[in-house]
Design goal:
It is built from 2 helices and 9 strands. It is an alpha+beta fold.
């Protein structure tokens, strides 16, 4: 009898323990799960095939049209990496971020392209809540390498240069003598008055 009661007590304790343990699981079926919204901003620049000269300043852009309300106060982070072939490893340079602490709502950030080994499989990864990777693009050695190459046409043949003394132009100046019209100047000598002999004799007397 005692053994039967003891067995019943143990059974009651075990049932109580089972009820306590099961209670949270039973209650959880009526609790709404918390939804985590992860924002992964879509990178719109650089585009596939873009060329960034090392040392230049470029602009990374991303789509801000679908930023959830709870993510609008976040700051962003941009890292440079590269992807070889179909490898999933992005080889991110976490020690040298291209940009940090910018508003994720800005939609763009300027970055200075580092002096890195030239290759055509670089990517940038923009982090909001989670990272989003750009298409592959190229980084060249320096800014000068981005200028288009100009091929000058080759000129064949002999060029003869003869230096002849240019003939001085002859200037003929003809000075015609100006005819001076003759000037006739006639000076009339006044005639001495004639004195009659009779008057002269009278004067002498």
């Amino acid at each position: 009898m005692f053994a039967t009661k003891l067995t019943a007590v143990f059974a009651a304790l075990a049932a109580a323990a089972t009820a306590v343990t099961a209670a949270p699981a039973y209650a959880s079926t009526f609790t709404s799960p918390k939804t985590e919204i992860v924002f992964r901003p879509h990178v719109t620049s650089p585009k596939a095939g873009d060329v960034w000269p090392a040392g230049s300043v470029q602009t990374v852009t991303w789509d801000t049209s679908d930023i959830p309300e709870e993510s609008k106060n976040q700051t962003g982070l941009i890292l440079l990496g590269y992807i070889e072939g179909d490898d999933i490893n992005e080889h991110l340079d976490v020690a040298n971020p291209l940009a940090v602490n910018f508003p994720i709502t800005a939609g763009s950030a300027q970055v200075k392209v580092p002096e890195v080994t030239p290759r055509n499989d670089y990517v940038v990864v923009l982090f909001g809540d989670s990272g989003n990777t750009s298409p592959k693009f190229t980084i060249t050695t320096d800014a000068g390498s981005s200028l288009p190459s100009i091929s000058l046409p080759s000129i064949t043949g002999t060029v003869t240069a003869s230096a002849s003394t240019p003939a001085s132009p002859s200037v003929s100046a003809s000075v015609s003598s100006v005819a001076v019209p003759p000037v006739s100047a006639s000076v009339s000598t006044p005639a001495a008055p004639s004195v009659s002999a009779s008057a002269a004799a009278a004067a002498s007397a």
